[in-house]
Amino acid sequence: MEKTPQRPPAHGAEVSVRFVVNGREQVLELEPRVTLLDALRERLGLMGTKKGCDRGQCGACTVIAGGRRIKSCLALAVSHDGDAITTIEGLEQDGRLHRVQQAFIEHDGFQCGYCTSGQIMSAVALLNEGHARTTDDVRELMSGNLCRCGAYPNIVAAIEEVRTGIAMAPVPANTMVALERSGSDHASL
After folding, report:
1. In degrees rounded to 5, what are phi and psi of residue 68?
2. For residue 185, what pLDDT is reported?
3. Mind listing the pLDDT tens digit for each residue in 126-180?
4. Do residues 110 and 116 lie in contact, with contact meaning Cβ atoms separated by under 8 Å?
5. What is the Cα–Cα distance from 158 to 89, expressed in whole angstroms?
6. What residues does CATH 1.10.150.120 cover in the chain?
7. What is the pTM of this model?
8. Which of 156, 155, 145, 151 is nearest to 175 (CA)?
């Protein structure tokens, strides 16, 4: 028996979308064009996931969906129906920060903080993926997350501490000044 093709919902019509967000089941009625980012922020009040460029270029909106890190500004919420979604708010457990969050604090892996949630979510996912075997791998796998303040050396140090289990010395603040004076390209990981 042939399946009758389903028609897309009429403009403005809502569809039911179910997620498990940070361990809690959520059912939302959404227009099919709503991004996962907007569903998380505007409908669920999870403001930790940031809207940066809204074009998938900065990584501030990174979340873990179905076990993979994604840029939630590019993902339609309906395409993640049934997925487990983890946002920055879902990392702490029983009042304790995730070890990546703690490492970011210890290594001063943030400045203004706007990109921090996306950086942390991407770091957690890359560690779970198990592809980062070297510091260069970490840099490459984090390259989709931008930090306009230039905290990259400290971000990498935080991730490396968690990856290797070895405490790495934080990069002194005056190192960035020296890099700027030398004309070194510190804007990339």
Report:
1. -120, 145
2. 45
3. 999 999 999 999 999 999 999 999 999 999 999 999 999 886 665 555 444 444 4
4. yes
5. 19
6. 99-181
7. 0.82
8. 151
**Quick one: tokens of 45?**
């009040």
Work out whether strand 62-65 and strand 84-86 pair parallel, antiparallel, or are unpaired. antiparallel
Give long-range contacts, CB 8 A cutoff, 24+ apart: 39-45.
39/77, 40/72, 40/85, 40/87
Residue 172's CB: how many other CB atoms inside 10 A? 12
Q: Where does 15-90 sit in CATH, by number?
A: 3.10.20.30
Cite the DSSP H helix spans in the chain: 36-38, 99-106, 116-129, 135-141, 152-164, 173-182
Q: In the numeric block, which tokens belong to residue 2? A: 């042939």
Q: pLDDT for 88-140, tens place per residue?
A: 999 999 999 999 999 999 999 988 999 999 999 999 999 999 999 999 999 99
Residues near 38 by beta carbon (within 8 Å), at least 6 away in sequence: 77
Write down the pLDDT at residue 166: 81
What CATH number belongs to 99-181?
1.10.150.120
Distance of CA 101 to the CA centre of its chain: 12
CATH 3.10.20.30 occupies which residues in the chain? 15-90
